[in-house]
Amino acid sequence: MNITAVRIFPFETREAGGRTLAYAEIEVDGALLVRGLRVVESESRGLFVGFPAQRVRRERLVELVVPLTREARRAVREAVIEEYKRVTGWQPSARPPVGEGCVGG
Question: Where are any strands of DSSP class E within the chain?
Fold first, then answer.
């Protein structure tokens, strides 16, 4: 699998309590376009890529695009995050370690 293009569509949701930083789309082998990837920031894991999903019967999310191998998942993740960092100049959020900066902590 060869990721031939990555496009990033950044936006800011952190001030509203959101974690999604951007949407992304990738081209695979110049023949398949995958839209709806999300760049998400987690306090514990840093940046990760969420794959397109759809809510089923209001109960659960089902991924619409599923990498079948670890290598494929890693390739998509690395390509999207690398391009996100390049486009936005992303730096990790400055959050105090747990227990610091808290009253009584």
Answer: 3-10, 20-28, 32-42, 46-50, 53-56, 60-63
CA dist 21 and 10 (Å) reads 6
The dihedral region occupied by 52, where left means phi > 0, alpha psi between -120 and 50, and beta the remainder, is beta
Structure tokens at 16: 């509203």
**What does the alpha-carbon distance between residue 87 and residue 77 come to, in Å, rounded to a whole number?**
15
Distance (Å, whole) CA 49 – CA 13: 16
How confident is the prediction for the chain on average, in pLDDT?
Answer: 84
Is the CA virtual torsion 62, 65, 67, 68 positive or negative?
A: positive
pLDDT digits (tens, 9 = 90+) for 21-33: 999 999 999 999 9
CA distance 49 to 105: 33
